[in-house]
């Protein structure tokens, strides 16, 4: 059974390209654009990995990350954001993010990271 | 240091002329050992001997005795007084400038560029951290670039893409390119607007107008000159408060009065800048995050008490500051007073006020561009 990845990202074209890449690599992919809906989707889908943006509509990625940390079986989280400042990375690491990657990224780089996180 | 470089210059000209010390000494009618002492700046030289040596070297005597360029010397001294050069040998500065004029010019030039760029970095750093429009724009542009890059990589590296999917990817690149273009143009318009509108935190017009009305330029300028720019005397004479006098003093130079240029910052207790007039060597952050060691912030701990301080920026420049925190409106029972603190400042070597007895307090501009180490007031890492 293929691993399930949820992309929480508000840019539809980034979702489109990421979904294409991950789908071709053999993963099951779902997506969510609204920060306020992210936790509901995570509870419903129980993904193995969440690719999470920081700046989301209605609820920040950091807040979503805090709620993920309280789940009994939390998925791994790859924080994918345009905010690459040291303080954001520190905040994410303090909350408990598994990996942190800044935009813009290379496709090969994100694929390799996802595969490494799910093995 | 009169003529301290004369010997060095004689040695340079002699070497260029391909003359030995012995030959030049003989032609000038002095002993080789005496010329050797002269060339090492251990003996003074003037009069007939100087003219004779100059004649033999084929140069005007004045070119051997002119002091090194004073601006160059000043810049080198400033560079040597920075924290990054604590062991610079200032005692041989003139000799260094004389023997290696090219390197000295380069060092001075690099120092001046560094100093100017530090001010630019302060402004940019301040803007990057606190400007929501810029932060939002950059985030949007990075997202556009990410989508374009990722999609373009797929189109160029994957061959078996369904036609419908390929069309969607092409449309995505088109859309994201247009959004990126729009975002870039919006950013350019934003900067153009900033450039034409000037600093956002200069005094509001109505404040400037009320200051002008209560302190007319001609009378204020003459009274200021007569009182050696004493703010207390001016406040008393014009029956106004010290903050209004500070604002008027800081505007004098721009109004054509022959007065030292004074900088001014007024903040509220939250650190928000309400009024700013920076000086070339003392940039002021636009949106707060200034050095917490500035006297303007110390003013809040001693409301209504005039404070005179001497501060030193990382570049070594010292400034005299006058600070006072005043309530924004009349104090009333039952209300907490709302204080604003104002700091008037100017370089210490231009200060018309009596000297400050205590040693200079070492401060910075903003933590992000401050090189000072082990500062208890540091709130964030420096980018330097």
Describe the structure.
The complex is a heterodimer of chains A (119) and B (384). Chain A is built from 5 helices and 5 strands; from the N terminus they run E-H-E-H-E-H-E-H-E-H. Chain A has 119 residues and is an alpha/beta fold. Chain A has a single domain, classed as Rossmann fold, CATH 3.40.50.2300. In chain A, strand 1, helix 1 and strand 2 form a beta-alpha-beta unit. Chain B has helices at residues 6-17, 21-28, 32-39, 47-57, 61-65, 70-80, 93-99, 101-130, 132-157, 163-197, 205-214, 217-226, 231-237, 242-252, 295-298, and strands at residues 263-268, 273-277, 307-312, 318-327, 339-347, 361-362. Mean pLDDT of chain B is 83; it is low at 195-203. In chain B, strand 3 and strand 4 (318-327) form a beta hairpin. With 384 residues, chain B is α+β, with helices and mostly antiparallel strands.
Identify the strand order in the major beta sheet of chain A.
Answer: 2-1-3-4-5
* Biggest interface, CB < 8 A: A-B, 18 and 21 residues
CATH class label of chain A: Alpha Beta
Give the number of helices of chain B: 15
Write out the CATH superfamily name of chain A. Answer: Response regulator
Structural class of chain B: alpha+beta
Helix content range of chain A: 40-55%
Main sheet record of chain A = 5 strands, parallel
Q: Biggest sheet of chain B, strands in spatial order?
A: 2-1-5-4-3-6
CATH architecture name of chain A: 3-Layer(aba) Sandwich
Q: Quote the CATH topology of chain A.
A: Rossmann fold
Largest sheet of chain B: 6 strands, mixed
What count of domains describes the coordinates of chain B?
3
Number of domains of chain A: 1
Broad shape of chain B? flat
Q: How many H/I helical runs of chain A?
A: 5
Average of pLDDT of chain B: 83
The count of DSSP E runs of length 2 or more, i.e. the number of strands of chain B, is 6
Give the termini distance of chain A in whole angstroms: 13 Å
Secondary structure blueprint with pairings:
The complex is a heterodimer of chains A (119) and B (384).
Chain A: E1 4-8, H1 12-24, E2 28-32, H2 38-45, E3 49-52, H3 61-69, E4 76-81, H4 86-95, E5 99-102, H5 107-117
Parallel strand pairs in A: 1-2, 1-3, 3-4, 4-5
Chain B: H1 6-17, H2 21-28, H3 32-39, H4 47-57, H5 61-65, H6 70-80, H7 93-99, H8 101-130, H9 132-157, H10 163-197, H11 205-214, H12 217-226, H13 231-237, H14 242-252, E1 263-268, E2 273-277, H15 295-298, E3 307-312, E4 318-327, E5 339-347, E6 361-362
Parallel strand pairs in B: 3-6
Antiparallel strand pairs in B: 1-2, 1-5, 3-4, 4-5
Helix pairs in contact in B: 2-3, 2-4, 6-8, 7-8, 9-10, 13-14
